[in-house]
Write a structure and sequence with these properties.
Elements lengths: L18 H5 L19 H36 L5 H46 L10 H4 L10 H13 L9 H26 L3 H42 L10
Helix pairs in contact: 2-3, 2-7, 3-5, 3-7, 6-7
């Protein structure tokens, strides 16, 4: 019987983990109650998430363009320019701002649904690679994103456990990419809430322009977060695919 933790060496006769994992402090116990994880290829879902995140980037870049246009128009109005040309630019900026908001919302919702399906799948796969290496139950892989305040660190903790369990058998991968993505995402989330509140409460032209600058910053950071998210998703998907193919005693249908 293979070690249930590393799935690389034979388990000790009187336990379910190998001598190496036992020496490292792995518990000599059966897998967690209700453990019924099985491997499923994350490749197709990972690619779909990457494509949708690319769509998010496109909508964010469009929003950045509109934000800059609106910021400039507001500056012109603050300088006392009320010509017909400025009014047309203002009307166009308002229309494009509304369109950008709709595009961003649609892209974000579509991406979130597919991302959560992918995230849950890689969480289950990670439990096969390492049944004991997870600090949160599977349900938190989805629910953790929707609980206020908790969503600022639970998903990151789950992602780290998945990353560690999915690393190659003989070495662990550093967390730089994960930390970079998560930092950018949290900054984007918090900045977005601040910008939304400022824009909603703004009444004068200077206040609106200042709020628009905050919106511009949020959209720019969101582009960075989406780029890092693509890199994270593709890296983790590739790690799991390679580990499933190379792991001893593991049989799993994987897509090409």
């Amino acid at each position: 019987m293979l070690c249930t933790r590393c799935r690389r060496f034979e388990a000790a006769p009187d336990g379910v983990v190998c001598a190496h994992c036992a020496a490292a402090g792995a518990p000599l116990m059966a897998p967690p109650h209700g453990h019924n994880a099985s491997l499923s290829s994350p490749v197709g879902l990972g690619r779909a998430v990457a494509v949708l995140l690319g769509l998010v980037i496109v909508t964010d870049l469009f929003a950045v363009y509109v934000d800059v246009m609106s910021y400039d128009v507001l500056g012109a109005l603050m300088d006392g320019e009320y010509s017909a040309a400025v009014r047309r630019r203002a009307d166009r900026a308002d229309s494009l701002y509304a369109a950008a908001g709709v595009a961003q919302t649609v892209a974000l919702l579509a991406t979130a649904v597919v991302f959560l399906v992918w995230f849950h799948r890689v969480r289950v796969n990670a439990e096969v690679f390492d049944p004991f290496g997870h600090r949160k139950k599977r349900g938190w892989a989805v629910g953790g994103w929707f609980v206020p305040v908790v969503n600022l660190w639970f998903p990151r903790r789950i992602a780290q456990d998945i990353w560690d369990a999915s690393s190659p058998w003989d070495r662990s991968r550093p967390h730089g990419l994960l930390n970079g993505w998560w930092t950018a995402w949290v900054i984007s989330l918090l900045a977005g809430r601040i910008a939304s509140t400022s824009y909603r409460n703004a009444e004068t032209a200077p206040e609106i322009r200042r709020a628009m600058g905050q919106v511009l910053f949020t959209d720019a950071v969101d582009v960075v977060a989406a780029v890092l998210a693509i890199l994270f998703v593709l890296a983790l998907t590739r790690m799991q695919d390679e580990k499933a193919r190379s792991g001893p005693g593991v049989s799993v249908p994987v897509s090409t």
